Structures
1.
Amino acid sequence: MLMEHIFTNNIKAILKKNFGKNAETVFEKSLLVQYLNEKTRSANRGSKARGSFANLYAIYVIIEDYIEKKYDKKGDYSVYEGALFSNLFARQRELPFGSKLQNHALNNRMNSEFQKYFPNSEYIPILRNLETNRYWINENLLKITVSKKSYNLATSIIEIIDEYIQTKQDAFLRFVKSCEDLQKIGTDTPEKVEEFILNLLAPNVDARLFEIVSYSILKYYYHDQQIYWGFEIDKLNKENLQLYKTGRTNANDGGIDFVMKPLGRFFQVTETLDFKKYFLDIDKIQKYPVSFIIKSVEPTEDILQKIRENASKTYSITAIIEKYMSCVEEVINIPTLIFRFKETVKQNYLNKVLDEIILQSKVEFNYEDYNEE
């Protein structure tokens, strides 16, 4: 039994437009359409719901290449030399919400997830040649036969993903509009602004929004804290702590999301408790201490204990585990962020935190580009 949700209606409308009375049969027979149905659950849950773009975009860019070469209409796709990885990867990052995507979906993650949903399927969606770095869509999943008539779903798949992108964009634009409305009335009704921001500190919030809100809160939490430093005891400098966001893309930043000046503290935002992710981030910067901001309401002591216990199952050497754990400078969970947010409110920085959320959101989601469109 296929699980339906609000966006399922959008999918079926597109299939109805393209396949008429056979639309329902296409929906039931196509594993690729069923996969899209699973991946688009968050479409109508608003901007706070996590979007599923990485795996969808992996399919999207390869099918887009398939259509551009007109294989959906004619020709023998089996003799095609394949799409270059570099072109597909670049195209992914041009798509809305795609600027931070990495290569995992194209390389394996999409296929792996597809197999979890459909363990009995004899096909995987993405085919690749590791030696040439060329990619293909599995045409067996694009072609469906209904009443002895063969249909190619390539164009429909693109239309469904485009519809999902548009729905998520609309949700985000409504989010920014809500922020801007609060910005106008913030002085008169600060409690509404405070409640709005607190609602963004939740485990189900989109990962990018959580990172933006975390940064905005911590920036002003540390804003008035001062340190004294210098090279001579009688010539010390007094300086406020400043938090900097390192950029929009993760490609070459060593896994670091925020950097604090002048202490040189590194902050990484994450939503996983997989110790391998933490250890990888620590390895990237040669075991330099990192503070982890974790999208979890679990107590920090429990989080650290889980990381240590899971690491112990993989590493049998205690010294190795302790070396990595010593590099976890601080764990900041959602309750800690809430406490620090309330401290910034006491310091009268509520509206500045909201301003920062709006600013960073517009940068992160190419807000000006959407307005131009």
2.
Amino acid sequence: MAIELVFKLAFVALFAGAVSIRVHYQRLAGTYREGVGRHAETHLTHEARPLLIIRPLLGIPWYVVVLLWFFAPKSIAWCQIPLPLWLRFGGMVTGAAGLVLLWRSHRALGRNFRPTLEVFNEQQLVTAGPYRVVRHPMYIAFLIMLASTGLISANWFIGIVGVLLIASITLVRIPREEALLRDQFGAAYASYIQRTPAVAPIRAFRGDSR
């Protein structure tokens, strides 16, 4: 059906946009010039071991079902759900919102962005843009986009497993990421933690402007 093609193109556009943002800011930060091998080594050094299990355990089935939805949708009828068109189009809107948040988060970081858990000598503590509201807006952006894929595809497996994948990565990575930032920025980061929530902008909703 023509309408399914629209949703599939929106799905592709969402992830093409995310990849383009990541690649652009990796180039801006110079991580490609420093070498893929060095960053792979950093990734294995700092990443928590559970992530080496979580990513393939949830990621591989997710990608398989996505590919089947694109090329053999009848084979995954068991996880398709009859969503109304307005809800699927709503998923496109929320996915686009997540993509904008991802872009703004990368833009705020600029050259401070790194795809791996690491800090460097010239790194700055960024508290502007989305980082003024929450400490980890990129994780929120990915959660929004992955939840949106379930609506766009009308597939509960794609939505739920995608959210579980990002949520589990978020829960494991945040403590390690913040430990590195505390070591790097000391009292400045401790103060930032006190005035800024991690992922849920509760203070912002309450009008707390500290």
3.
Amino acid sequence: MDTQPSSSQHDLPTILSGPWTADARQRAFECEVSTHYVEYYRRAVTQRNWSPWHNLPIEEMQQLGSRLSSTSADLIEGFLGIEEYVGDYVQTGLNLFRQDRTRRNAQLQWGAEEARHSVAWELVLKHSHARTDAQLETYMKKAHAGVWDVRQHADMDNPLGVTIYSMIQERATHFHYQKMRLRIREEYGLSLTPTSQEQARGFEVGASEAFRLVALDEIAHHGLFLRIVQSAIKYFPAQTFEILVRVVRGFKMPALHLIPNVRTYIRAVRQADFYSPEIHEQEIYQPILRAIGLESHVALERAVAAASQLPVDLAPESLSLKRTGEWCIEGQGSN
């Protein structure tokens, strides 16, 4: 029903329904990112607030350390090296997000959580008697001599590219650590699932617990970056998919070429059948495609090809993406 506004209503701004401007999209995107970060932070401090110095079963690592194979020790040492470049990763994000309070703070929180991972791997190696204090000190000095550079990866010179890369990388790291956790349990002589005793006390045995905790961090990080990417697709579909494709094509794990003893690490990866292009496709890439609403790489290519032709002033709610890669505009069917 149409009504005449009262005199007091004349002082209020007029709300018009019309095209979405670039500025409106950016503001709506930033609002969603803030919501994602607040929820991520809540879970971080209430559900994943652990310390490598205080919450790991060190005595069990010492008791069971002799059961770890040399291949497992070499893998963990490689993880330690890669995680030691956390300062470079954080600095890159801080430079990109310097004017964005929410993303800056998210980068700081993410970095604080990541910083405990290399400490966890150092403690696992030390207390499992897989490496001496002197060996660990020498290894980390060599690691610190290198510098990870954002330019080593495709499209990591812009905020959206960094977010997409992080989404993929965190999913890959979670997979690695979960696989390592199961490998350790097997070498310990345990079942792959936690025993009733572990369930009752609330944590797993020895180094298995370290990998459980770190893997929980990594999948939480993946979830944050995934939600940001999903929001970017909602408000900036053409730009997001264009960068997504380039990052996917050029993706490689960070700092791999920088870590000390890299040949030993790569040999261990091969001996353990730990990672391969086929594993990446099945365990990392395909789940990410499904999470953003696509069923295959062909669907991604179809979505990318059509995204650049979408009207730029549509309300985000009027646009949807089919799993097969076709875009639908409300009231127009497939486009």
